[in-house]
Amino acid sequence: MIETWDVVVVGGGPAGSAAALRVKQLRPEARVLLVDKADFPRDKACGDGIAAHGREELDLLGLPGVIDDYRPARRLSVVSPGGARVLATVARPNHVVPRKVFDARLVEAARARGVEVRRGRVRELTAQADHVLLDGRVAARTVVGADGANSVVRRLAGLPPTPDRHTAIAVRGYADVPADDDVQFIAMQKDGWPAYAWSFPIGDGTANVGFGMTLPRLHATGRPGREVLHGRLAELLPDLPARDLRAHHLPMSPGRPVPGAGRVLLAGDAASLINPLTGEGIYYALLSGRLAGEAAVEAAGAPLAAYRRKLRRALGRHLRTTDMLSRAAQSPGFIDAAIGTAARRREVFDLMVDVGLGAGTVPAPLAAAIARRWLWNALRRA
Ligand SMILES: Cc1cc2nc3c(=O)[nH]c(=O)nc-3n(C[C@H](O)[C@H](O)[C@H](O)COP(=O)(O)OP(=O)(O)OC[C@H]3O[C@@H](n4cnc5c(N)ncnc54)[C@H](O)[C@@H]3O)c2cc1C
């Protein structure tokens, strides 16, 4: 017996839940199945930082207030590789919500909206003329592959994995902090750059702490990954001994593939939608999941073309900006110049937050100001 669904979503992280929620929001009678290999609540290695931009996506999905019981994080402190510092209040607050809680809330909201949620691991996809067959048992007019960084759906759809040079790896843990610690802290590292450690207080006397670097830099150390990541975290945040350490890959957007094939759409990490400057992926996951859901409803006959158009409209210029900035950011001096400028000019700080955590772009005069500072710093050093 083959079951038929309008949309099958593989993966119940933010991308998958957003896709399922959007389909039901636009077409309540649609038959939507969400399959995840894990039962919820489940943990996910992440910094748990949800940017204000991600919160706006939750509003669009009809879930305002879903994280309002968590304390808003208004202050952000960043230290650049060369020691330039900025500490400022962000224009719109971020939130830190453990993924065990956040993802389970989204899955539960999807279930409440009529999405069928099942535990299962997808292993096989067969494209047919007007549907896709999953594991020989389930047929879908559209499949949304939202199965994360090591996406099986992406591989089965014939799309290549993210190249190592555009992949990062990060470890996160939890540490005790004073309950009134409310500064999100990021310490960038010259040694092994691009690399940084973070501490994101949750508001309950604990903080999510972690350390991440790119795969080529990790391989260049010639040492086991676990030893390097755990060691660097302990070294960089010596006063915050971390428990529950867990690591995962981050496929970054400069290595993104075509976001699907035929009736298969890729969203979130499965589409390599992680910001190469910050490692932020939850906002992109919610946004791309929502757009995949919209394409599945509005263009059921040819969802990929519609999805690509929507993604391009929402993120095209931004992704071209971050592609370019991530190349410039290979030089720690560029980041020093950007943070140095942000420390002096409020509008630059706001823009950096928008580019790093949202869909912001950089106006040419500002790019020129940072380039001037970069050059000036280089000349002074010379
Ligand atoms: C250490 C670390 C820190 C990070 N910090 C931040 C941060 O602070 N803020 C931020 O915005 N981003 C952060 N990110 C990135 C963020 O975690 C991801 O971008 C985000 O989780 C992407 O969501 P997703 O829904 O695409 O995938 P995921 O959240 O990975 O969900 C994928 C789901 O698919 C399921 N699945 C996998 N394979 C199958 C299969 N074959 N069949 C069925 N189900 C399957 C999994 O069980 C999982 O539930 C961090 C990443 C790491 C590794």
H and E string: EHEEHEEHEEEEHEEEEHHEEEHHHHH
Mean pLDDT: 95
Classify the helix fraction into a percent range.
25-40%
Distance between the termini: 73 Å
Low-confidence stretches: none
Q: Which percent range describes the beta-strand content?
A: 25-35%
At the first level of CATH, the class of the largest domain is: Alpha Beta
What ligand molecules are bound, each kind once?
flavin-adenine dinucleotide
| Name of the CATH architecture of the largest domain | 3-Layer(bba) Sandwich
What structural category do the secondary elements indicate? alpha/beta
What's the structural domain tally?
Answer: 3
What is the helix tally?
A: 11
Spatial shape: globular
- Please give the radius of gyration in angstroms: 21 Å
CATH topology type of the largest domain? FAD/NAD(P)-binding domain
Give the full name of the CATH homologous superfamily of the largest domain. FAD/NAD(P)-binding domain
The tally of beta strands, per DSSP, is 16
The largest β sheet comes out as:
8 strands, mixed
